[in-house]
Specification:
Elements lengths: L3 H20 L16 H26 L6 H15 L1 H10 L4 H29 L4 H6 L3 H17 L3 H16 L4 H10 L1
Length: about 190
């Protein structure tokens, strides 16, 4: 199978996720600027999640560049990733509505952790399908950035029960770490051209 349908479906799901998240932003009651202050946690949660969805979309684009054929394993691994990403609107809304309180923050971290694990599983499925000498296998190498992200998420979950603001800092830190798209694939493709 080709990868076009998988890419189109994934793009559509991610667009719907962002749409659902923005619909969670309620219009404030009142015309003064002070009417916006109760919505600040919801808005900040939305911004963080929007950035994360953008990071996944951007890196998914790079990842799919390495795919030459799609089998059932890759399809299911991609759906697994989309499942966890589809929980972002719920986790984002609950965390924002409850002003970053411990349990919603821990749940948000759990969704981030599971999405990151699903991402690694998708990478693994592609490598299994295309071989250890594949472009993706060579590009990701030891994947220090991906594995360290998992550690930050895993640490943020229990920390959320005592200091949710530290967990928020860890979430922002990992987002900043990935804000610049993963260039490993682009570098390897450029090297192979010369």
């Amino acid at each position: 199978m080709g990868k076009v349908r998988l890419e189109a479906f994934s793009d559509g799901v991610l667009a719907i996720i962002i749409t659902i998240m923005v619909l969670g932003l309620r219009v404030p009651h009142g015309e003064k600027l002070s009417a916006l202050s109760p919505l600040l946690p919801v808005f900040l949660s939305y911004v963080l999640s929007f950035v994360y969805i953008g990071i996944y979309w951007n890196n998914h684009h790079h990842l799919m560049y390495t795919v030459k054929k799609v089998g059932g394993g890759i399809l299911w691994a991609n759906l697994h990733l989309l499942f966890w990403l589809s929980l972002f609107p719920f986790a984002t809304g609950w965390m924002g509505e409850n002003h970053f309180s411990p349990l919603p923050t821990a749940l948000y971290g759990s969704v981030l952790l599971m999405a990151a694990l699903a991402w690694l599983f998708l990478q693994h499925s592609i490598i299994v399908s295309h071989g250890e000498g594949s472009l993706l296998a060579q590009a990701i190498g030891g994947d220090l950035k991906g594995k360290s992200s998992l550690l930050f998420y895993a640490a943020a979950i229990p920390i959320a029960f005592f200091h949710p603001w530290i967990s928020q800092i860890l979430f922002v830190f990992v987002a900043l770490l990935w804000l610049i798209p993963d260039r490993r694939i682009e570098r390897l493709v450029a090297e192979r051209r010369f």
